[in-house]
Specification:
By secondary structure, the protein is of the alpha+beta class. The chain folds into 2 domains: 162 residues, Jelly Rolls (Sandwich), CATH 2.60.120.10; 63 residues, Orthogonal Bundle (Arc Repressor Mutant, subunit A), CATH 1.10.10. It has 8 helices and 10 strands. The protein starts with a strand and ends in a 21-residue tail after the last helix.
């Protein structure tokens, strides 16, 4: 993690990578006087504005993104960035590769998909911005890998489903008995290093579809259910482990680290 504070201008920027997600680049920054000259990225830019106004151009379009909004830039698109007023602006940004976003779209449709395109440079969606902000905070530290997997798959999927120009169509078939087996598996193995992929495999669904039907059935994502399981927590502590799940295997978007 690399930090570049500037006390004179109250500016700060922290950059790091989430290696378990194909080296996904992340940035948390606050700028007041700093501005970005026209430039491009090979990746997408997904930025959640937490304070102030981000004024920028995406190609020839002049945009203003207030706090709570999401900035979307497709790979290869020229863009700039500067404060919209004297307060400056703060944001959390993801730089997912086209490969990551193509995988996310494929998980939704459960068949091969192209990488998504976002026609809008600024979107107002409190639900998705909340998901992205929570994910960004988790990737900065403190959450288990299982929790990060679940948050990553869900947040990226919702971004695509709600804001991509062409949106994949999810499947809707669910075997409730199979889902109950997955819940029982989670209850009995939560103190172990299980992964989102393992749980989804119990019902023969992609990680995205498993998360969707699990939330519909139980009102919580699987990592939240695992956190609320006192029996599993006692087992983990008795065995010298952690009282929560920490996924270890690849889940379609996630790559486990080598030992």
């Amino acid at each position: 993690m690399r930090r570049t504070p500037n006390a004179a201008t109250r500016e700060t920027a922290t950059f790091w990578r989430a290696e378990e997600f194909d080296g996904l680049e992340l940035l948390r920054a606050r700028y007041v006087q700093h501005s970005f000259a026209p430039h491009t990225h090979e990746t997408y830019v997904v930025g959640v504005i937490s304070y102030g106004i981000d004024q920028f151009r995406r190609n020839k379009q002049l945009c203003a993104a207030p706090a709570g909004s999401i900035v979307l830039v497709n790979p290869g698109e020229m863009h700039t960035g500067q404060a919209g007023d004297e307060r400056g602006w703060a944001y959390r940004a993801f730089y997912p590769s086209p490969k990551i976003m193509q995988r996310a779209a494929t998980l939704i449709a459960d068949k091969p998909q192209a990488a998504p395109y976002f026609s809008q440079a600024v979107v107002r969606d409190d639900y998705v911005s909340g998901l992205m902000r929570t994910l960004h905070e988790s990737l900065e530290g403190g959450a288990s890998l299982f929790e990060r997997e679940s948050q990553f798959v869900w947040a990226m999927s919702q971004l695509i489903l709600r804001h991509a120009s062409e949106r994949p169509v999810p499947k809707h078939n669910t075997d409730r008995k199979a889902l109950q087996r997955a819940r029982e598996f989670l209850d009995h193995h939560c103190w172990q290093n299980i992964s989102l992929n393992q749980l989804a495999g119990q019902v023969h669904l992609s990680p995205f579809h498993f998360l969707r039907v699990f939330k519909e059935a139980y009102g919580l994502p699987p990592h939240a259910v695992s956190h609320s399981n006192p029996r599993a927590a006692r087992q983990a502590i008795a065995l010298g482990g952690q009282p929560h799940c920490a996924g270890g295997a690849r889940c379609g978007l996630c790559r486990s680290k080598p030992p």
